[in-house]
Amino acid sequence: MVLALYPTNRGVGFILMRGPLSPVDWGTRGARGKQKNARCLEKVMALIDAHQPDAIVLEDPTAPGSSRSPRIKRLTRGIATLADSRAIDVHVYPRSRVKECFEKFGARTRHEIAMVITALERFVPRRRRVWEVEDPRMSIFNATALAVTYFDAAEK
After folding, report:
1. Cα separation of 93 and 58, whole Å?
2. pLDDT computed for residue 123 by the predictor
3. Around 46, how many Cα atoms within 13 Å sit in the side-chain half-sphere?
4. What is the rounded distance in angstroms from the CA atom of residue 124 to the CA atom of residue 114?
5. Burial of 120 from C-beta contacts in 10 A (0-12 / 13-18 / 19+)
6. Cα separations (Å) of 107 from 34, 59, 70, 152, 154?
7. 3-state secondary structure the chain
8. Spans in the chain with pLDDT lower than 70
């Protein structure tokens, strides 16, 4: 099983998948206040303990063009370290690789990619306007896009 995680400013979105079309569990785990990273790591640890994934998939926050905050970069490193300590394979993909994976479906934006992921279609938030904050549920689709990218890379 693969656990894909997408850290956000509000917590972490996740999806657990058996295969590219087999989601098992998904959702968001929020974290507020001080020590967000520690709270997120506790929630990730609980997900790992509950599901025992074979691999964890993350977005590379240090890739060229990435605009992830320093806190998210630290959190991503913390998740990778946690996975390594549990002998879980970690796979990291830049956003450009995720986009490349979904280009064959004509999807370029996060919203278009979310629409391609039909298993969770009823959870897709409406398209955000430029001045609006991204809906927290979008992190589920970002995590799913990472998982699909992992499966796509495994096929090649």
Report:
1. 7
2. 57
3. 10
4. 7
5. middle
6. 37, 18, 28, 15, 21
7. CEEEEEEECCEEEEEEEEECCEEEEEEEEECCCCCHHHHHHHHHHHHHHHHCCCEEEEECCCCCCCCCCHHHHHHHHHHHHHHHHCCCEEEEECHHHHHHHHHCCCCCCHHHHHHHCHHHHHHCCCCCCCCCCCCCCHHHHHHHHHHHHHHHHHHC
8. 21, 115-129, 132-138, 154-156
**Kind plus residue range of the DSSP H or E element containing 6:** strand 2-8
**Token pair of 80 as six digits:** 């990778």
- Domains of the chain from N-terminus onward: 2-155 (3.30.420.10)
Residue 91: closest CA among 42, 29, 154: 154
Beta bridge partners of 22: 19
CA distance 134 to 154: 30
Provide the pLDDT for residue 120.
46
The full length of the chain comes to 156
Token pair for 112: 């278009």
| Contact (CB, 8 A) for 143 and 15 | yes
* Whole-structure pTM value: 0.76
